[in-house]
Amino acid sequence: MKKTILFSLASAVTATAMAMGPMPKDSLSATELGTVTVYATRTIVPLKKIPSKVEVFQGKILERSGSLNLGELLKTHSSVDIVQYPGFLSTIGMRGLKPNGGYVTLLTNGIPTGTDNVSTLGISDIEQVEVLKGPFSAIYGTGAMGGVVNLITRKSKEQLTGGVSFNYGSYSTARASAVLGGGIVGGLSFDAGFSYNAQGKDYLSGHNSLLSKSKLEETILDPKTKGVEKRGSLYKSMMGRLRLGYDFSPEWSLNLYNSFFSANNTPVGGHNWNTAELTGKDLNRYSTSVEVLGSLGRHALQFTPYYNVEHASYFNKYNSSDAIATYKSSLRTLGFLLQDNINFAGHKFTVGLDGQRLDKENSSFDKITGKPKKPSQPAYGTRSMGAFAQSNLSFFEERLNVSLGARLDYINFLLEADPLLKNEAKKETYLNVTPNLGVKYEVIPGLLLHASAGGGFLSPDAYKKSGEYEDAYGKTRGNPKLKPERSFTIDGGVGYYNRDLGLSFDASYFNTNIRDLIYNVTAEDNVKTFANGDKARLSGLEFLLSYDFGSLVDYSFSLRTYLNATLMLDSKMYERKKDKWDQMLLVRKQNITFGADFTYRAFELGLKGRYAGPSIDTNWNTMDWNTKTPIRPELPDLLKAEHPEIAANNQILNPRFMTIDASAHYSFLKGFRVSIYLNNLFDEHYFEKDGYNMPGRNFLTSISYRF
């Protein structure tokens, strides 16, 4: 029966929109390609003119997603890799790059968020989410080797608008949010948003599997963890944003942005097999920026200084009055963006400078006495300056669009002295140039060919490049000759968009070669250090499909089916010390999201699914150190028999899974709306990270009012 239901659902679900909005513009069309504006490219041009792979989510998609944060939105709507733990810790990867957060740049209004943790970025007051896949280091510098995610916040300047929402669901889940914004007096305006989210009880893992599982996959998932309480999965958090703006004239304006995230007394360590006691965590993040915008003839000027700080504290006990902090860290980023957008004869040029000061500090304390002890790393930082130039050139009545640009980065690495680690202060410098090129051509109305090529790089942390220190595990020495990891990507494809036919389609191929991957080595004097030498090759296919059956009846209703898929053809890394090619860790062979949305007047129904293919990870979960007994005792022999190389590397095969979510919505009176979400409808037993099962079947109800 389950397979019959699944087949019926899968038959109805065949496609995705790259840009989505209110009915009848939920699906991407040739018309909408020209009206959806993308800001993350810094040239600020319509989606239709961008050769790179870009997905834009807005309007109805954000409203009815039911997602708590950016991580949940991306994993159910965009084909990305994700590593997710309970307790607000999630990082993503794109196009085969490891999802450790280091290869994707996260932005808000084009400014760095100061975090790589997508669980701390709420979307309840977000107007648009832009996902750019591929290397964008030519625009944003280090860390954008895999892609960019940009959040666009509300900017209300006219009549006062806003809304409130209240949710309640499984495991005593309660959510409340409010947004308000508009003009105050004269040129003064504001936007404010706040949300409170809590889960009062630990969730239960799933019981079932929509896909047939081998004995090996069943053993890895461990039948003993089906339908059990996930210890340490409850939470409380608050998020908020505020914008104050003033328009001095139609040409000049100023905006002050502030945002925060707070999740204190959060449990940590709720492992499937309960091999350790729960500990606690406080996580807090704050961001502020000032945006000055002005126009002078053909020039659109912007100057934005910003400051971000993220604090994390870990405690030896959870929810205890005598808990002792065992580890504290802080990440501070202070920077600015100065740019000029020039519009000339239908072409756009952007030139600019950006700079950033990054400081990372950490402290460790004895879990019994609370006295300071050797930290895991010395405090370090970077001082970087980048100069960039980008262009978007249009020819033949905008049928041919060419993007061309380059960036120069100067990076200064700083390592601070630490008496506990016995290291001296050191510094090193590095210079890097990154180019990019893209072409998009409209052969006939709606039929587009596109191709792009560009470089990416990821600079090493300062402690890997300079200095020497000694921690509890021995000496570590930086390598002043260490180079950044570098990549070169080519991609190309074809797309077709026609709103009258209700059809949206894009297919792309990408190929990435990475050199100078950084790996750990042991020097002749038995000191741990770092070197370049490893390399990687990544290639795959990306598909975006969408078809709206409402086009057959002139959109008197909308029934939009969609699919977003990344299929990896190759994702291997050459490890110099092993002299062989191995699979990249935590990269799924396939990432596919799909669904169907029905809208008729005040009624909306949604069905969305996600298929995640297998991936490889290090097998950290081998022994219960409390009882001195092995976890999953049958697993080693099964792995050796079916995947001897994986077993030899002390790795594990993360099983495939498929989840299905459903939702229903009804709008009534003027501005009221009720919704119900049925998540993990078939109670899938799965995990994003081995040892941390995700919730089984659960529900969430919502009532909201907007004006």
TrEMBL record:
TonB-dependent receptor-like beta-barrel domain location: 247-681
Highest taxon, organism lineage: Bacteria
InterPro entries: Beta-barrel_TonB (IPR000531), Beta-barrel_TonB_sf (IPR036942), Plug_dom (IPR012910), Plug_dom_sf (IPR037066), TonB-dep_rcpt-like (IPR039426)
Listed name of the protein: Vitamin B12 transporter
Domain TonB-dependent receptor plug: 47-148
Biological processes annotated in GO: siderophore transmembrane transport
Cellular component terms (Gene Ontology): cell outer membrane
Record-stated family: Belongs to the TonB-dependent receptor family.
One term of GO molecular function: siderophore uptake transmembrane transporter activity
Region ranges (Disordered): 362-381
Pfam families recorded: Plug, TonB_dep_Rec_b-barrel
Leader sequence segment: 1-19
Gene3D superfamilies: TonB-dependent receptor, beta-barrel domain (2.40.170.20), TonB-dependent receptor, plug domain (2.170.130.10)
